[in-house]
Amino acid sequence: MNLQEESPRLPELYEYDFRSSVPVIGPLISLVRRWLYSLTAKWGVWVVIQQQNRINRMVETWFRKQELWLHEQGALLVDLDRDLTLLARAVAEMEVRQRHLAKMLADRPLAQNQEENV
Amino acid sequence: MPIADKLKIAYISPFNPLQSGISDYSETLVPLLSEFFDLTLYSDCGVPSNPMIANRFQVYPVQYLHAHRSSYDLRLYQIGNSPHHRSAFAALRCLPGVVVLHEPFLHHGLYWSSPLHFYRRELFYDLGRPDQARLKQLEHLLLNDDRQQMINIPLIGRILDSSPGIVVHSRTARKVIETYWANSHRQSALPEIRVIPQLMAMPGPYDTKECRARFGLPPDAFVVGMGGVIHPVKEPRLVLQAFARLAVDLPEARLLFVGEVYQETGDILEQVGELGIAERATILGRVEALECLHQAMAACDMIVNLRRTTIGETSAVALRAMALGKPVVVRDIGWFSELPDDVCVKIGPEDSAEKLAAVMRALAASPEMRLRIGREAQRYVQRECDPSQIARQYAEFLWDIYWNTVGPELRG
Question: Read out DSSP for B265-318?
């Protein structure tokens, strides 16, 4: 089973893209915002984004390992269930023989049982 | 034989008031089987509604089997594809026994025995652990009732692994099991499988005119019947279309549907109206007593019992109609193919409403043919499905299983 195909990858974090919907001077406003952002926060935010991306990748890898482990455990449980079923059958057959043997012993004369015990 | 006593057998099955064909089956079988064995019954039916069962036998809830496990020489499970067997499915996991598989296909029974993990556990048991996409695909097939696609995974793996012996009612069912076995590469040996025909007590006799009067049917009309649950797999739409064609030539003809109409069938009255046969069709719905079902079927001149697909099941309704001496129209698939050609009328697996209408016309035109097929059908049921003979076959099989389990060294 390919677990990666089943669950999509986490998206990477990215910087906010400043825009403005104001007519005519909108591009100017977004340019000013971008300039202010690059002046005050860009490098700090970039470091935080890189850190968070690394954390996300670690968490993702950990979850995928857990998922794989759970899948393996699930398969193991199925195998154990099958083994238990075969064991249940063996126990049931043993119980039939045990009851049969008990009936045979009960049917024999007491003296014969005592003789054999001696 | 060193053990002269009767074997003590735990008999696990639904009984009425649980509404199941297996309840009726067991109520016929149990009194006859008790001539050979000391039977104790396990069922979640509460107090059996049949006094013959309630007064003669001890009946415990299925979960008591665990406490009584060492009290029996063998356990005999009657298992079918319905959620009535939920407790039996659970008991089978740790208390295996001889299993009578009324259908070798348990998807519906296990799926509707909520919770869902109950079904998935058995799915995983048979398939290993499928991926999510495969699991969703299987559940989709089940909800669309696509039996043809699912017959290769009949969900009987655990039963095959744990049971010392399996009883089925047809060679078709046996083949389904053997094919599944061959493809599943299991560790354990294939259990002994015995084909014991479905039992059917001879009902009646019934006076057709009296029965018709009871259901408000004209005494001289040609009456086509369809009995048992009305489910799309039994092709009620095709029967309506064929009857509509017949009604053009034979305006006096009548159609009688007797049995619970399943939701999946859609609005049957609307379909009847669309085809312009509303005046000629009677939809009775489920009739409570078996006697009432017999009377309704006895009121008919012929019974249609089709299957679009088969899961290896036998049809008690078809046998009931045959026991009543009615000609039955079936498709030539599964167990129906095993019926001799002279005891029923077979149409091909893909035949259309036109072909069915032609069969209806032929039967309507020839009372002699109806009588001849009906008589042969009755003889067949008497010969093959006699409950006393069936009980004897059960007894032989259970003793065989017992001695095989005990082994030659303890046989004495």
Answer: G--HHHHHHHTT-TTTEEEEE--SSHHHHHHHHHT-SEEE---SS-SS---HHH
Task: Provide the CATH number for the domain formed by B208-384 in this structure.
Answer: 3.40.50.2000
Residue B255 and residue B220 in contact, taking contact as beta carbons nearer than 8 Å: no
- CB contacts of A104 in chain B (<8 Å) are 2-3, 410, 412
Out of A89, A97, A103, the one facing B162 most closely (by C-beta) is A89
What pTM, to 2 d.p., does this model score?
0.86
Determine whether the interchain pair B131/A6 forms a contact, defined as Cβ–Cβ distance below 8 Å. yes
Identify all chain B residues contacting A68, using CB atoms and an 8 Å cutoff. Answer: none
The segment(s) of chain B belonging to CATH 3.40.50.2000 are 8-199+386-410, 208-384
Exposure pattern of A4-25 as b/e (b: 16+ CB <10 Å)? Answer: eeeeeeeeeeeeeeeeeeeeee
The CA-to-CA distance between both ends of chain B, in Å, stands at 7
Q: Work out the minimum CA distance from A3 to partner chain B, whole angstroms.
A: 9
pLDDT digits (tens, 9 = 90+) for B50-66: 999 999 999 999 999 99
Q: Give the residues across from B258 on adjacent strands.
A: B227, B285
Those residues of chain B whose CB sits closer than 8 Å to some CB in chain A are: 2-3, 5, 69-70, 73-74, 93-97, 121, 124-125, 128-129, 131-133, 158, 161-164, 187-188, 402, 405-407, 410, 412
**Tens-place pLDDT, residues A82-116:** 999 999 999 999 999 999 999 888 887 766 666 66
